[in-house]
Amino acid sequence: MTSRLYVLLASLLLVVMITAVFVESVDANSSRRTRSTTRTTRTTGTTTTTTTTTTTSTSQYSDTFPAVSPAILGSCPPEVHDRYFVIGPDGRKYRTWHPVTVPIDPNNPSRGTCTFAHEHGDNPRQGSFSDLPAFGYAAKIAGMVEEIAAHAGFKVFYKPRTGNGLGNNAEWRIVVHQGTAGVRRLVQSFHSMQIDIVDSAGRRTSVNLMASTGNLNPKCGPRVGDRIVPDEECVRRGLFYEVWYFSVRVGTGTVNGAKFFAAPGIGVYNPMTYMKVGDLSSVYPICGVVEGLPFGDPRSFFLGNQRAVEHPDFGWGNPGPTQFWTDAFGNEVTSNCDPTRCIRQTVPSGYYAWFDDDSTFDWPWIDLPLGAPGGN
């Protein structure tokens, strides 16, 4: 009887111990889950906040509105640069022109200003032109969005009607993509070109396309093309001028086979880099050779910010309607199209003229106080 009692008591004690261990285990696991949940909650909260911040900062970017290199932002934060955009004809968001120095917060002047390390030339909203260009719209239609990413290369030229044109009594604006810092210009012949003209009779022309610059021509070598880039010999001889001669043909008409024709040369007196003949994979800073300065240094002359437009010849020969569709390269599209696939061009109907202008229009130096370490 006594032994049975001992066995019963031992069994009861064992049950109590097991129950206690189980309860402790449950409490411990519950506590761990609670702490884990707490950590997860904090982590989730942090992640959500970070993700939200990141999303807010990056989800707005796209192939037509890409993030830009911090090297071209100078002293401005990205959100200041992101203020400057337009909606293109296709409904997409594109970057556009801005001054070099801008307010950090237009609604709070006390925050002061910041300065970009790149420039886009003239203010496009002058005279008869009140709109801002969509940088890279033609490139998007052409499927060449890598040009849009090279944002600093977009330049604007504006000439009022009271210029020195030889018979070209017109007001015009040219928006072009031409950078002198990168290597792609050695192999890429098509670049964005937008031309807007208001002549002395009030006739308006507005064309936009990817225009050809022909073949590459090392400047100091034999003349083989129309995109002239300084090479090693040029640098040794102090011949730095770079110029691209564009061929602009829009639609099917009677002036060189087009409804509108132009052949402007876009020149740069102080390009940032030079090429080596036979090497299309690299470019080299001119400032390092000539001045002993780092690339894009604000003390350098070679910042790509002193430019010219050579002989901006314009011709019209449109026997058809004033507005018509083309592809991204100016070839007329006979069927109906839309601005996500084609470009609507405007050329005065029934107007036949040729402005043979041999002038060279020098543009004033646009100061870059912070230099152009990301290219210009």
What is the averaged pLDDT score?
Answer: 84
Strand content: 25-35%
How far apart are the termini? 103 Å
Relative helix content: 10-25%
Strand order of the largest sheet: 9-10-11-14-17-22
Rg, Å, rounded: 31 Å
Main β sheet profile: 6 strands, mixed
The count of strands amounts to: 22
Instruction: Write the H/E string, N to C.
Output: HHEEEEHHEEEEEEHEEEEEEHEEEEEE
Shape: globular
Q: Specify the structural class.
A: alpha+beta
Number of helices: 6
Low-confidence stretches: 1-57
Key terms for this structure?
376 residues; alpha+beta; six-stranded mixed sheet; 6 helices; 22 strands; 22% helix; 28% strand; globular; disordered N terminus
